[in-house]
Every structure is written in structure tokens, then in C-alpha cells.
Specification:
Radius of gyration: 30 Å
Shape: elongated
Number of helices: 17
Strand order of the largest sheet: 1-2-4-5-3
Order of helices and strands: HHEEHHEHEEHEEHHEHEEHHHHHHHHEE
Structural class: alpha+beta
Number of strands: 12
Amino acid sequence: MLKKLIKRALSQTPSDGIPGSETMGVKIKSSLIENEKYIRNQFGNTRDLVIRHLTIAGRAQAMLVYLDNMIDIKVVNEHLMEPLMERRQYPVDDMEDLIRTVIQVGQIKTSSKMDELLGHVLYGNTALFIDNMPQAVVFETKGWEHRSVDKPDTEKNVLGPKEAFTETAMVNQTMLRRRIRSTRLRFELMKVGEITQTDIVVTYIDGLAKPELIKELKRRIKKVKIDGVFCCGFFKELLDDNPLSPFPTMEGTERPDKMTAALLEGRVGLIIDGTPFALIIPTMFWDFLMTPDDYYSRFYSGTFLRLLRLAAVAITLTLPSLYIAITTHHQEMLPTALALSIAGAREGVPFSAFIEAVLMELAFELVREGGVRLPAVVGQAVSIVGALVLGQSGVEAGIVSSTMVIVVATTGIASFAIPGYSAANTIRLLRFPLMVLSGLWGLPGLVSGLLIIFCHMISLSSFGTSYLYPVAPVKLGAWKDVAIRVPWWAMATRPKIAANKKRLRPFIPPGKQDGDQGAS
């Protein structure tokens, strides 16, 4: 039923009355008055629209159109208005001559379509109309306020760069261009949102990314019909291979160095204007367990930390369920001393192990959510104090056992060690159905639930790439950068997701002379 609803929603076409589409196909008029009337009619009663009339070369009537606070007013005044209003003689009947001899702004375009022109104005550029000319000139004058480059907030690191993407796509492009100084780095602009007309930038390295991957991504973007896009998480659902799966199949990152590494592997990036997070496509499950610090430290440390995170995933997903299954259905599996200790701790507790675990897990999630939503100054303190007070009070009141507090606290700490925010949320969510299965059928229920999750993950894909690659399907040669991290000189090939002709990485193995390149 849900799949039918999704297909029906995707097959629907937008209605004819969508705002933002009224200018489609309208040509610019020769009359300055008609063009002004049309523009004012489109924008309506808005305070930020500026239409400035001026006389060019002392004889030709013209007007500048821009949005206040979206432009660099110094550029408009000094490089547009001053040279245009000089009384010296220069051609005003030929747009190309005017641009070549008078205007001092760097990027200039001409247009004869009103929808294209207004799109540029809405993006912070300035349009010049001249009376008796059926076209206009667009000048690059963007100058709106934006947040400066700051440290990563959600993907913190110990080593490596300390800068993060911002909400401005142009700034994010510059950060990538500064790291990848190659003519093969591509930025392709697309628009999404019938009303918002949000800039979506597809970025990749020509020759590394597979052409079919780029083509498929563009096809999906073009199919998106929606009023507006505000965040990469919002956009992920519209492009996902598996929209009903709880597992994320596209990774969002705020780190330029992480995006750079992905592009060098042959992946494709998606920069969305208005959000500091960019998407990496395709993404495998193991990518959510990796951090840039794995590569900035020795490979021994990187391998240890990855194995530690895998253990954290297992603990977060199964520890409460395992406790419920053993204490409810399989007490004989416990050593006598441990069984007596747990029984003594549970003496007087009015709830079953299942109810006790659910209550404690929900309380822990509430404390966690409260700490996230509160201001940073008090959020961390509330999380720590709230957890301590709840646990201690629950044990003293006899509502929960001290053993359950240890289990829930260990589970919570383990969940903090999972780097990928989206993946961590999914794993925390899945432990609740596993707890239900363990409470009903014990260990057989827990194992059955894990098998269902594993089979579901095997069935997933991210833009045609298996979600569990290289574990399923098994590709032993690609295991060098999954659970373990081998030395850089031992990773002679890029992942299979890269273009086949460019899979070999250029490097010099240790001990080799210059020019003796090869794979070890």
C-alpha cells in the first residue's frame, strides 16, 4: 500500500497555478514602461524591490532592477551607475558594444527571456534595461550577508582541518576548489523547487566518477517536483533508492576534507544552497562508522577505533535485548554468582525486565533529546545531571534495578561512539523492536530480529551500489578500508564505485626510488 502511494505521489504533475512559474516563455519588451510594469506586477507589494531609473550618456533612458540587501551596493554604485551616467559619448544602441566599452563588472550576461532575467535578480544580481531594446544585461553583484567559515559542529575531530561548510553554495564550492586544484573538478548547477528555485550543485571529478552515476543522479534531481528544498535531509528522501527503509543510504557531511576524499574516490557530491551539509553519493553502511581522524593518525590507531565503533554498534543494538532475553527466558545461562547478584538487585522491582528496560531507555532518550534542544550552555549539564538523578532516584525508589541502570548507561555511552548521526538514530530506534522480540521469545526472537535486519540491509542499494559492499557481495580486496584501515601505500586502487579506467592510485611505495611507481 505504501509503495503504491509513493508511486502515485511521484507520478503527479504540479498544478498550473504554482507561484514562480508565471514568467515562463515571456519575452522582454522594447518598451521600458512595459517591462517595469510587468516586473512590479510579478513582485507585487514588496519592500526590497528596487527599480532605479537613469539616463545613459545623457540621452538614453534605462533602469536598473535589483533586490535590496541581496547585492553589493558598492559594486552597483561604482562600477555600474557611475560609468553609465557619465555624459561622454558611447554606443547605447548596441548592447555588446556597451558591455565591452563601459561596464566594469566581471561577470556579465545578456538575456531576452523574462523568467531567466528575474531568476538572476532573485539570486542577487542586477539587471539593466534600456529603452527600445528587447533584451537586458545581467551583472554579477551578489553581496548578501552570510555566515563565515567556522569549525565543524556535528563532525568534530582531533586532527586535521578545522573548517566546515556554510549555508552558501558558492562559499562551499570555493572550499572544494581550493583543495582540488584540478581542471577536472566539475560543478554543475541545477534548480529544484517550483517556488524557492534552490541551487543544487552536482560536483565530481571528471574521469573518476562513473558517467552513469552522474547521469542517474541528474535524472532523479530533474524528476523532483516540490515547492522548495530547505535541507539536505529533506532532499535525501526525494532521491533515496529505498524511501521506506530506516537506514540512510546517503551521507550528509559538513566537512570539506571529507567531501574532498569522497570525490577522489570517484563519488559524487551534492551541494545544496541554504544548508551547511552536503551529500555524498553513493554511501555504504560502513561509511557511517568512519571519521577523518582514522586517516589522520597511524593505521594502528585507525583500525582500533573502527573496531571499537563496530563493537559500539553491536552493544547499542543488542545489549538491552540480550539482558531481557537472558533474565526472562534463559536464566540457566548465567553463572550462579551473577544470577544471584541480578536477582538480588531486582528484588522488590514491580516490573518485568522488558517493561523496566523500555521505561529506562525511553527516559534516557528524553534526557538526550532535552540536552540537544536546550542551549549549549545548559544542555550538557542537563543531560549529565538528568541521567544521574533519574538513575539514582529510580534505584532508591525500587522502580528499576541497579543492573538495568548499568545496562542502559552502557548502551547510551556506546551509541555516542557512532559517528554518523543518521545511522546512530536508526540503530537506537531498531533496538526497541529487538527488545520486544527478546521479551516474547528470548534469544530465538533476538536472533530472528537480527537476521531480518541483516537481510533487509543486504537488499538495500545506494544509486546501484550494494549497501553492505564489500561485505555483501563479498569482495575481499576491498576490505582494506572497512573494519580495518591498512597503510595508505597498501591501498593501490580506488573503490569499485570509481570509474574502472581510473581505479589505480598514483603513489610511491616505501623504499622505492622516484619513478618506480607500482602497487605493493
